Amino acid sequence: MPVPADDRPAMLPAVTALDIPDDIPPVRFGLVGYGFGGRYFHAPLLAAAAGCELLAVVTTAPERRAQVAREHPGVATVGSLEELAAAGAEAVAISTPADTHTALTEQALRLGLAVVCDKPFALDAPSARGTVELAERLGLPLSPYQNRRWDSDFRTVQDLVARGALGEVSRFESRFERLAPESGPGAAGGGTLRDFGSHLVDQALLLLGPVGSVYAEWRLRDSGLDDDVFVALAHTGGARSHLWGSWRQGAPGPRFRVTGTTGSYVVGGVDGQEDALVAGQSPATLGSRWGAEPADRWGRVHRGDDGEPVPTLPGAWHTFYPAFAAAVRGRGPLPVPARDAVATATVLDAARRSAAEGIVVGLPR
Fold first, then answer.
1. Amino acid 10: pLDDT
2. In the chain, % of residues over pLDDT 90
3. Which end of the chain is flanked by fewer CB atoms within 10 Å, N or C?
4. What is the domain range of residue 181?
């Protein structure tokens, strides 16, 4: 489980190239899958990461192989995890449909590879726990890809809370809402609750600690997948989180509204790192400008007034893979502990039950 409130770090560390000792050989990475996530969220960041070498991509689709050759010259394509391991990979990032994550992660671990697995880490908590326990038995690094812990706006929320700028936090409101009905909820993500919810719940647990009860609502689409999700978490420390996810919201609410005893922080829009990657930018092309948000996108702290603007801290997705590489070499902790994926999946299981049965679900303490 995430650490208790009084033991949580004030800020997530941002690992940079300067933190990676020169004597560490780069970790040879493979990437499984070259769809949207693999192509835009993993490959560019791996290619630019200190301490990492993108060795090969596992894909059998001819069009994907052509994309890899065009976008990452010199990076091989192979047809299986066995071929990847035989080519000399030490670690792998898995970015494939949700229902393949458990099988592929466990196959990679049995081949002796360190693993980063995209969200949702598993379709349910028992599957997540089984995979984590396998990695622990084998002594291999395993980390869920919770890159949105390093969103610019969430880093700013963490900083404000750690500094006491809002007083004691009573409510955390967080949204991933988009108007893109043709894009989701996709089967590849396992539905909106598992897909968006993996990030929403992970951030809430990291910020406010363990949860005692869960209430959720959803709308099931013709596909049978859930969308228009609302989840309410009662944290054991007394605060509450209200989380929304939708692909069919014509008027998205603020990304965050965080309310405390002395003020509230509100920020709209969405962290810009995803858009930058889709546009072909990366930490390699933008350098120190990576993750920076312009002043017109900053949030504000309100105290019953129009509010005071708060500079948004830079987004830092590019720090995940250097940190994971350092952990593989025994030079630091994993960027996201594997058991955090079990904690998130446990809350999501409770949310699914709550939405399906119309009840509040309690969690053991």
1. 36
2. 88
3. C
4. 150-315+347-362
